[in-house]
Amino acid sequence: MIGLGLWKIPNEKCEEVVFEALKAGYRCLDSACDYGNEKEVGLGIKKALDAGVVKREDIWVTSKLWNTYHRKEHVRAACLRTLKDLGLEYLDLYLIHFPIALKFVPFEQRYPPGWNFRDDKAGMEEDDVPLAETWSAMEDLVKEGLVRNIGMCNVGTSVLRDLLTWAKVKPTVLQVEMHPYLTQEKLLRFCRQKGIAVTAFSNLGAGSYVQIGMAAIEESCLTVPQVQQIAKKHGKTAAQVVLRWGV
User: 4-201 is classed in which CATH architecture?
Assistant: First the structure.
């Protein structure tokens, strides 16, 4: 029910964090090309496998297709690069990270490519790639056995409703921001009706975005007086209370 999100874990600490998480009982690892640490995640997984902490079939590894690889000819290559970095033969889940297609940046030029098209200046350059083209290539990954499940991140009911009308392989999972300040009740209800599992990220509030200037510390759920009162009453941390709300 609770997985380890791998965004912003420093490369030099990532291998040990993943290994210790698996030792502690985590079985879901949420990775992505854009996080820039998949090689280190792979080393942590290998260390745990070699030590007999887990078997491959015991863990669920998620990764995500980045925006610059939405064209059909780039989807498979991006997946293979992720698999190579993670040291795995297949992914349990591969998600389209954002419903935003950006112009292709070759692996040898910059990896992960990030949001900016050029190395020397900021700015996205969008590419007109239909979702149907990207999704079809994702379906091919399932048919080939490179991934077991496919899904979406950061979209609402309108995109999902349309996708479900024509997809040959249905989305298994939707991953969106969800916490007591962003409850997503209608979206969650829709996904339950359609048999789509929901993964919530930024479970503790928007604290993840503070250091990159996209949120204020006040948007964290951990400082809410009611949360702190509940935590004190039950002898838990504020984080445990908010995670229990999510569960």
Answer: Alpha-Beta Barrel (3.20)
Which stretches within 61-121 are classed as H helix? 72-86
Cα distance between residue 239 and residue 242, in whole Å:
5
For residue 119, name the pLDDT band (cuts at 50, 70, 90).
Answer: confident
- Per DSSP (E only), the strands in 4-99 are 4-5, 28-30, 60-65, 93-96
Catalytic residue among 35, 69, 94, 209: 35
200 bridge partner residues: 176
**pLDDT tens digits along 178-228:** 999 999 999 999 999 999 999 999 999 988 888 888 888 888 999 999 999
> Angle, nearest 10°, between helix axes 38-50 and 11-24?
40
Rg of the chain's alpha carbons, rounded to an integer?
18
User: Catalytic: 209?
Assistant: no
pTM of the model: 0.96
Q: What is the dihedral of CA 107, 109, 111, 116, to 10 degrees?
A: -120
Q: Which 3 state secondary structure label does DSSP give 65?
A: strand
Q: Which helix (H) or strand (E) holds 153?
A: strand 150-153
Strands, sheet with 60-65, edge to edge from the N-terminal-most edge strand:
4-5, 28-30, 60-65, 93-96, 150-153, 173-177, 197-201
Q: Let me know: does 224 contact 200? Beta carbons within 8 Å.
A: no
Alpha helices in the chain (DSSP H): 11-24, 38-50, 72-86, 131-144, 157-166, 185-194, 225-234, 238-246
DSSP states of 219-237 as a string?
GBGGG-HHHHHHHHHHT--
C-alpha of 199 from chain center: 9
